[in-house]
């Protein structure tokens, strides 16, 4: 159908800037980061990955807030860059490190590793080389404005080389750090493993003056585990060492012989367990038990399993009649036995 034009109008409008990211839209954007690369091949590589993983994206967002690179509005959840966030972007914007392409290339290589076309050690070599090149490039390009953020102040003399240790907005470091044949004294002020907290100057001074810091509470996002460690001075090798606090060793006491395989039954803090019982984390982080299944918790349904109970179980195959509280708070009386077929402790009810 042909229609006559009855009226035309010229409208004047202005473009609007893109909406600022909120934590929610940023999470989405990280997840779909593949769309930000124009290269089809790389887009494909990132299709199932994005930046970070479901488990780490929120951590990354929080970390940038803790580091003072941006603020997050409590109500609107809008992310706003701080001056230091803007400086970081200035510093890194042309760096491959912040290009989605790099993540995509690595994902692509990892896919080759899983299909068997590239060995893991070759990939690891490639990644190492690229990472060192990137870091070297960043160190070489640190702008004056970035360094001036907090004037560096000398806080001690360097225990490794006799130079000066200075503190600035980012680190405690020897003035000879990063020089040719330089010094290894460098500690970041806001290391991620301190859960966004500051590495306190008095810990650094303690390291310098006494050779060690106190044990600091740390977190490994990769292992999703808290741990404690301290810094110590290694004067022989002129570097700073990292020393893990030994986990409390519970001295397992031998209390009897396993009825299943004759192994020793050991008493630990929460259970009586056969020495041949194994627990291991599998690749997805779940605990897997193997070996001899003999294991009796020291408390069952709120009732304490005493050493005498254990001795009875080991020697007579069952405990005396004991009182337990069921899941619906009902009291019941039963003996405890270890059911070999089910591989767990069960109740034997009196008739
Ligand atoms: Zn030094
Ligand atoms: Zn056993």
Task: Report what the structure shows.
With 351 residues, this protein is an alpha+beta fold. The protein folds into three domains: 23-122, Topoisomerase I, domain 2; 153-244, no CATH class; 253-348, no CATH class. It is 28% helix and 26% strand. The protein has helices spanning 23-31, 40-46, 57-66, 83-92, 100-115, 120-141, 144-147, 201-210, 307-316; strands at 70-72, 79-81, 153-157, 164-167, 171-174, 186-188, 216-220, 225-234, 239-244, 253-257, 264-267, 271-274, 277-281, 287-291, 295-297, 299-300, 303-304, 322-325, 331-339, 344-349. The strands form seven sheets. The chain has a four-stranded antiparallel sheet with strand order 3-4-5-6, covered by helices on one side. A four-stranded antiparallel sheet has the order 10-11-12-15, covered by helices on one side. Helix 2 (40-46) crosses helix 5 (100-115). The longest helix has 22 residues, at 120-141. The chain is extended, with a radius of gyration of 30 Å. The chain binds zinc ion (2 copies).
Largest sheet, in brief, is: 4 strands, antiparallel
Question: What's the quaternary structure here?
Answer: single chain
Cα gyration radius (Å)? 30 Å
- The total number of structural domains is 3
Kindly identify the CATH topology of the largest domain.
Topoisomerase I, domain 2
What is the CATH C-level name of the largest domain? Mainly Alpha
Q: Helical residue percent?
A: 25-40%
How much of the sequence is in beta strands?
25-35%
In N-to-C order, the SSE pattern is HHHEEHHHHEEEEHEEEEEEEEEEEHEEE
């Amino acid at each position: 159908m042909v229609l006559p034009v009855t009226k035309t109008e010229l409208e004047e409008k202005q473009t609007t800037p893109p909406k600022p990211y909120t934590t929610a839209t940023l999470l989405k954007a990280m997840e779909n980061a593949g769309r930000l690369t124009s290269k089809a091949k790389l887009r494909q590589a990132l299709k199932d990955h994005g930046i970070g993983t479901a488990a780490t994206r929120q951590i990354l967002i929080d970390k940038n807030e803790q580091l003072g690179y941006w603020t997050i509005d409590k109500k609107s959840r809008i992310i706003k860059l701080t001056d230091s966030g803007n400086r970081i972007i200035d510093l890194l914007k042309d760096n491959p490190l912040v290009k989605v392409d790099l993540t995509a290339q690595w994902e692509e290589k990892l896919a080759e590793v899983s299909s068997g076309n590239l060995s893991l050690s070759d990939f690891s070599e490639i990644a190492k080389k690229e990472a060192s090149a990137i870091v070297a490039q960043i160190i070489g390009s640190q702008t004056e404005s970035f360094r001036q953020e907090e004037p560096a102040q000398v806080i001690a003399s360097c225990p490794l080389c006799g130079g000066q240790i200075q503190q600035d907005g980012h680190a405690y470091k020897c003035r000879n750090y990063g020089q040719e044949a330089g010094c290894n004294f460098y500690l970041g002020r806001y290391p991620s493993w301190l859960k966004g907290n500051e590495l306190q100057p008095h810990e650094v001074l303690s390291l310098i003056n006494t050779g060690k810091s106190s044990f600091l509470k740390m977190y490994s996002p990769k292992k999703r585990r808290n741990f404690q460690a301290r810094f110590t001075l290694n004067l022989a090798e002129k570097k700073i060492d990292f020393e893990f606090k030994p986990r409390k060793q519970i001295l397992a006491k031998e209390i009897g012989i396993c009825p299943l395989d004759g192994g020793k039954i050991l008493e630990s803090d929460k259970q009586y367990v056969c020495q041949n019982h194994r627990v291991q984390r599998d690749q997805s982080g779940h605990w897997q038990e193997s070996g001899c299944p003999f294991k009796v918790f020291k408390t069952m349904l709120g009732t304490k399993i005493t050493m005498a109970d254990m001795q009875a179980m080991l020697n007579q195959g069952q405990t005396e009649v004991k009182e337990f509280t069921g899941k619906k708070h009902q009291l019941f009386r039963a003996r405890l036995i270890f059911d070999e077929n089910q591989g767990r402790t069960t109740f034997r009810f009196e008739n």
